[in-house]
Specification:
mainly beta; 5-stranded mixed β-sheet; 22-stranded antiparallel barrel; about 45% strand; globular
Length: about 950
C-alpha cells in the first residue's frame, strides 16, 4: 500500500479528522507520482501534542482561506455562521439587541462559552461579556480556521466549555500581496468595500522573517425600505407607547370622566387632538387610526461600520536551539445601531403643569379623580427628539512575545507572555433626561417659561407639551435631549509555558506527551455616564459601574498512548488522556480532564471517541453586575389579548385571581390589555457563583476508502451536558414570570394571593420580589443570575467530501472537481427541562435551533478559471412560544430555507487574479415570524440583505 503522509500546507484544503466545512470547495489533494506526500508535523486544535497525521479524536472542522475568498466574506462571522455546529451570534445585521460586535456561538451554549484563539493563543475579549469580537480578526490574513465543538478545557482552560475556534494566520511571507473587493446588494444599497496589503521579507540570511498586514473595511447601513416590504412594519404589533401620548388610569385614583368607568379599570386615553383625551385605539395591525407606535421603519437592517486592522508578525532564530517570536494585533472598529425614538413611560406630570391647567378637556379628566391634585401618569414616544443612535468605537490591542526551544530529539518548549487590552467607548445620542423632563413639566411655569424652581436647577429650561403629536418644540427637544458615553476596558495578562515530545517508545509507537503551566489575570472596568449610572435616562438601559479582576494559576498534562499496531483487525489502537487543574481566586480549585481513543481496524476506517469534562469559571461581570435595566420580549400573563397577534387570551381562574390581586381590578371584566410587548426588567450578578461544568461525549467514525481516491466521510454523535449553568434564574425573564404566575395561580383561591406570599415570586439573594407593577399596572421584573440551570444538547454531524482529478482533464471539461456535504442533525436542546429543538424566536431564549442544517459545495477548475457553488439548508422551525411548557401558543414559525451562492475567479498569471460572485442568488427574503429575535426575523440566521454582488482583485509580487 502507498505510504500516505500529509504535507503541512495541505491543512487549509483538506479535512481534519474527516470533517471539513463545505462553504466553498477547496483544491483537491495533491500527491506525488508515487502516491505519497511529504511528512509534516502539526498541532491540531483540541490538543497541544504534535502529530504526524490529521486524524484527531475530537471532531475538528476547518475553513480554508480559499473557502472564505470564494464566498466574498469580508466579515469572519459570515463564514462561521454557515457552519452547522454554530448557532449564529451577533452580526452586522443585528440591531436590537446589538452592541456593535460580531460573535461565534458553538452548539448554542453562548459566545462566552466558546474560546477564541489566534495562532493557538487566547485573544482578548471585547467587553464585559467575556466574548471575543470577530471584527478584530482580519479575514484577508486567515490561512485557515479550525473549529472544535465540545469541551476543550483540559487543553485550554476556562471558556472552552462549548469548544474552540482557532484562527491561524498566514506568516513567513515574502513579497507583497494586495487585495481589494467591492460589493453591493441587488437593491443598490448595503455597499461594502475592503482593501488590504500584506508584505514580508526574510532577514539575516533566512534566519528570520517579518510579515506585516494592514487592512481597511467600510460598510454602509440601510433601513427598511420598499424593496424589503417584510421589514417595513412591526410584526409584533408595535408598541403601546405612541407619538400621541397615553394617559394611564391608576387603580387607586381612577378617572370617572366620559368614557371611563367608576370602577378601577384601565382607561387609557390618547391625544390625537392636542390636549383632548380620546379613546386609545389599541389596533395591533398598526393601521392609520392605531395609537400604537410602529418602531420597525427606523430600526437599521444593516449597521454601518468602518474598520482598520494592523498586524505585525516576526520570528528570529537566535541559534539552532532558540527562536524568538512576536505577534502584534491592532484593530479600530467604529459602527452604530439605530433605534426608534425614546419610549418615555411612567412620567408623572404634576397637576399644576401649565398645559394640564390650560387644556379644558384634559383638566376635566384630572378633576374627575377622587384625588384631583395627584400627578397624572403618562407615556409618550419622544419622536421630536429623534431616533436613538448608539455608536461604538472599539480599540483592540493584543501583544504576544516569547521563545521557542528545540530541546533535542522531538522535544520542544515554548514560553509566551501575552497582553491584551480592549477599550470600548459607547456613545448615545437622542435619549431623554428624566431630570430635565421633570423640570420642564414642573408646576408653576407657562407655555414659554419653566417654573422658577426649575430655572434655578436648569437656567436653559424650556417647557414641554406632551399632549399630542408634534407638540414638543425644537427648543424643548434640545433641552431634554441627552447625549452621553460609557467606557468599558478589558485587560488580560497571560503567561504560558508548554513542553511537547516523546516520553519513550512503546511497541506500538511513541508515547507522546504535552505538559505546561499558565497564569492568567483578567481585569474589567465599566464606567457608565453619570446620567446612565443614576438612571437619569428613558430610552436606554440604566447600568451601574462595574470593576473587578479574576486570577488563575493552572497546570495541565496530556498524552497519546499507542496500544496496538499492525496486528489482525487492529491497524492502530491508541488512547488519549489529559487533565488540567486551575486555581482561581474566586471559585478556588477546579478540574478538567479528558479520556478517549481511536481504533483503526483497517487502513481506511477509523472509529474514535472521547469523553471530556470541561469547566468555566464565572467572569467578572457575572459576579458583579449591579441592577442593570433591560427590556426583554415577555408577555404579561394578565393581558386578555396577545399584543403580538391581537388574538384573545383565556385566563385560568387562578391566574385571573392572582392578576386581580396585583392590578386592583379583574383583568377579564376590564378587558385589560398590556400596552407593550417588552417588559422592563432589572438584571443582577451574583458574587456567590461557582464554576459551570460540562460533560461531553463524542463517538464517531472516519472512512477514507482506498478504492475511491479523494473520498472522505465522517459521522460523529455528540452529547453535551452543562451543569450549574450560569444564567438568569428560571431560564430568563419569561421563565421567572411563568414560574411566579404558575405558583401564584395555584396559591390563589377566590381571592388572589399577594406576590409577597408566593415563594417563587421572591428571591432571597437580592431580597426583593421578582415581579411587581408600576402605578399604571405595567409588569416589571427582576432577574438575578445563579448556578441554577442545566443545559443538554445532542446530535449527529455528518461530512463527506470527494476531490476528483478529472481523467479527461483539460480543455472544456476542466481539471479538478470538488464536492462536499456537511450536515448536522439536532437531536435535543434542552434547557431547564424545556425542549427547544426545532424552534425559533426569542420567547424565553433568543435562538434559532433547526433540527437539520446542511451545507453543500461544488468547485470546478477550468485551467485558470475556478467556479464555485455553495448551498445552505435551514430546516423548518416551530415558534418557541408554542412550546407546551409555556402554556401559550398560536404563533407563526418558519418554513425550510435554501440559500444559493455562486462565485468564479480567473488567474491572468501568477501575479493577478480577479474574482466575483453572487450571494443569495435566488434573492430569497427572510421569514417573518412571531416573537422574532430582531426586526421581524432572525437577521443572524437568515439573510436580510437580499441578492448581493461582489467583485475584486488580488495582486501578488
Amino acid at each position: 500500500m502507498n505510504n500516505v503522509k500529509y504535507r503541512r500546507s495541505l491543512l487549509a484544503t483538506t479535512m481534519i479528522g474527516g470533517v471539513a466545512l463545505a462553504m466553498a470547495a477547496s483544491p483537491s489533494f495533491a500527491q506525488s507520482q508515487d502516491g505519497t506526500t511529504e511528512v509534516g508535523e502539526i498541532v491540531v486544535t483540541g490538543s497541544r501534542i504534535v502529530r504526524k497525521d490529521y486524524v484527531a479524536n475530537s471532531p475538528v472542522a476547518t475553513v480554508s482561506a480559499e473557502q472564505i475568498q470564494a464566498r466574498g466574506d469580508v466579515n469572519v462571522e459570515q463564514i462561521l455562521n454557515q457552519l452547522p455546529q454554530v448557532v449564529p451570534g451577533l452580526s452586522a445585521n443585528s440591531n436590537n439587541p446589538a452592541n456593535g460586535s460580531a460573535t461565534v456561538d458553538l452548539r448554542g451554549l453562548g459566545p462566552s462559552r466558546t474560546l477564541v484563539l489566534v495562532n493557538g493563543r487566547r485573544f482578548v475579549p471585547y467587553d464585559k461579556s467575556n466574548a471575543v469580537d470577530l471584527n478584530s480578526i482580519p479575514a484577508a490574513l486567515i490561512e485557515r480556521v479550525e473549529v472544535v465543538s465540545g469541551g476543550a478545557s483540559a487543553t485550554y482552560g476556562s471558556d472552552a466549555l462549548a469548544g474552540v475556534v482557532n484562527f491561524i494566520f498566514k506568516d513567513n511571507f515574502e513579497g507583497l500581496a494586495v487585495n481589494t473587493q467591492y460589493g453591493i446588494s441587488g437593491f443598490g444599497d448595503g455597499e461594502q468595500f475592503n482593501a488590504s496589503a500584506m508584505f514580508g521579507a526574510n532577514i539575516a540570511d533566512g534566519r528570520g522573517n517579518v510579515t506585516g498586514f494592514v487592512g481597511y473595511a467600510d460598510r454602509d447601513g440601510f433601513l427598511p425600505n420598499e424593496d424589503r416590504p417584510w421589514a417595513l412594519s412591526s410584526n409584533a404589533g408595535g408598541s403601546g407607547t405612541g407619538i400621541y401620548g397615553g394617559l394611564n388610569n391608576i387603580g387607586t385614583n381612577n378617572y370617572t370622566a366620559v368614557g371611563c368607568s367608576t370602577a378601577p379599570t384601565p382607561c387609557r386615553r390618547s391625544f390625537r387632538t392636542a390636549g383632548v383625551p380620546g379613546q386609545f385605539n389599541n389596533d395591533f395591525g398598526l393601521g392609520a387610526s392605531s395609537d400604537r407606535y410602529d418602531f420597525a421603519p427606523v430600526n437599521l437592517l444593516q449597521s454601518p461600520s468602518e474598520r482598520y486592522n494592523a498586524v505585525l508578525l516576526g520570528h528570529y532564530d537566535i541559534n539552532d536551539t532558540f527562536t524568538a517570536f512576536t505577534e502584534v494585533f491592532y484593530t479600530n472598529t467604529r459602527n452604530n445601531i439605530q433605534l426608534a425614538p425614546t419610549p418615555a413611560t411612567g412620567i408623572n406630570i404634576p397637576y399644576g403643569n401649565y398645559f394640564v391647567q390650560n387644556y379644558p378637556a384634559l383638566l376635566a379628566y384630572a378633576n374627575s379623580r377622587p384625588n384631583q391634585t395627584a400627578p397624572l401618569n403618562f407615556d409618550r414616544r419622544m419622536a421630536e427628539v429623534g431616533a436613538r443612535v448608539e455608536s461604538h468605537d472599539t480599540n483592540v490591542l493584543q501583544f504576544n512575545g516569547g521563545l521557542r526551544a528545540n530541546l533535542g530529539g522531538d522535544w520542544k518548549a515554548e514560553g509566551v507572555y501575552a497582553y491584551g487590552r480592549t477599550e470600548l467607548r459607547t456613545s448615545i445620542e437622542n435619549d431623554v433626561s428624566r431630570s430635565r423632563l421633570a423640570a420642564a413639566l414642573a408646576a408653576g411655569g407657562s407655555a414659554t417659561s419653566c417654573a422658577a424652581s426649575s430655572l434655578q436647577l436648569f437656567p436653559g429650561c424650556v417647557p414641554v407639551n406632551l399632549f399630542g403629536a408634534g407638540t414638543i418644540t425644537p427648543q424643548a427637544a434640545n433641552f431634554i435631549r441627552l447625549n452621553f458615553a460609557d467606557t468599558s476596558i478589558f485587560e488580560r495578562q497571560n503567561l504560558t509555558f508548554n513542553v511537547t515530545g516523546t516520553a519513550f517508545e512503546l511497541p506500538a509507537g511513541p508515547l507522546s506527551v504535552a505538559f505546561g503551566a499558565e497564569y492568567r489575570e483578567d481585569k474589567l472596568s465599566f464606567t457608565p455616564d453619570a446620567a446612565k449610572a443614576s438612571g437619569d435616562i428613558f430610552g436606554f438601559n440604566a447600568e451601574r459601574p462595574v470593576a473587578g479582576r479574576t486570577e488563575s494559576k493552572e497546570l495541565y498534562a496530556e498524552a497519546v498512548i499507542p496500544l496496538v499496531r499492525d496486528v489482525p483487525f487492529i491497524k492502530s489502537l491508541e488512547l488519549e488522556v489529559g487533565a488540567r487543574m486551575a486555581d482561581y481566586d474566586t471559585v478556588g480549585k477546579i478540574y478538567a480532564y479528558k479520556a478517549g481513543g481511536s481504533w483503526e481496524p483497517v487502513e481506511s476506517l477509523r472509529f474514535r471517541g472521547i469523553y471530556q469534562r470541561a469547566v468555566r469559571a464565572p467572569n467578572v461581570f457575572e459576579l458583579f453586575q449591579a441592577n442593570d435595566q433591560g427590556f426583554p420580549a415577555v408577555l404579561d400573563p394578565c393581558t386578555t389579548r396577545n399584543p403580538s397577534s391581537g388574538a384573545a387570551r383565556t385566563l385560568s381562574p387562578g391566574v385571573r385571581n392572582f392578576c386581580t390581586a396585583q392590578l386592583g381590578f379583574d383583568p377579564v371584566a376590564a378587558s385589560f390589555v398590556a400596552q407593550n410587548t417588552q417588559t422592563e426588567s432589572f438584571f443582577y450578578g451574583n458574587p456567590n457563583l461557582t464554576e459551570e461544568t460540562s460533560d461531553t461525549v463524542t463517538l464517531g467514525a472516519v472512512w477514507q476508502p482506498t478504492f475511491v481516491p479523494g473520498l472522505s466521510m465522517s459521522l460523529d454523535y455528540y452529547d453535551i451536558k452543562v451543569d450549574d449553568y450560569i444564567g438568569t434564574i428560571f431560564g430568563g425573564v419569561s421563565g421567572i414570570v411563568n414560574q411566579c404566575f404558575a405558583a401564584g395561580a395555584a396559591a390563589s383561591g377566590t381571592t388572589g394571593a399577594p406576590v409577597s406570599a408566593v415563594a417563587e415570586c421572591n428571591n432571597a439573594g437580592i431580597g426583593l420580589p421578582l415581579i411587581y407593577r408600576d402605578p399604571a399596572g405595567n409588569l416589571k421584573a427582576r432577574a438575578p443570575l445563579g448556578n441554577v440551570s442545566q443545559l443538554q444538547t445532542s446530535g449527529v454531524d455528518f461530512s463527506t467530501r470527494y476531490g476528483w482529478n478529472v481523467p479527461w482533464g483539460g480543455g472544456f471539461w476542466g481539471q479538478k472537481l470538488d464536492v462536499a456535504v456537511n450536515l448536522t442533525y439536532l437531536d435535543s436542546y434542552e434547557l431547564d427541562g424545556i425542549e427547544y429543538k426545532g424552534t425559533v424566536g426569542a420567547y424565553n431564549i433568543s435562538a434559532s435551533l433547526p433540527e437539520w442544517k446542511a451545507n453543500v459545495s461544488l468547485g470546478y477548475d477550468f485551467g485558470p478559471v475556478r467556479v464555485n457553488y455553495s448551498g445552505t439548508y435551514i430546516d423548518a422551525m416551530d415558534n418557541q412560544g408554542n412550546i407546551p411548557a409555556f402554556e401559550d401558543g398560536g404563533y407563526v414559525g418558519t418554513d425550510s430555507y435554501w440559500y444559493h451562492d455562486v462565485s468564479a475567479s480567473y488567474d491572468f498569471n501568477d501575479n493577478v487574479e480577479i474574482f466575483g460572485g453572487v450571494r443569495n442568488l435566488a434573492d430569497k427574503a427572510p421569514p417573518v415570524f412571531d416573537n422574532a429575535n430582531d426586526g421581524n426575523t432572525d437577521p443572524n440566521n437568515f439573510d436580510v440583505v437580499g441578492r448581493y454582488f461582489f467583485v475584486g482583485a488580488r495582486l501578488k509580487y
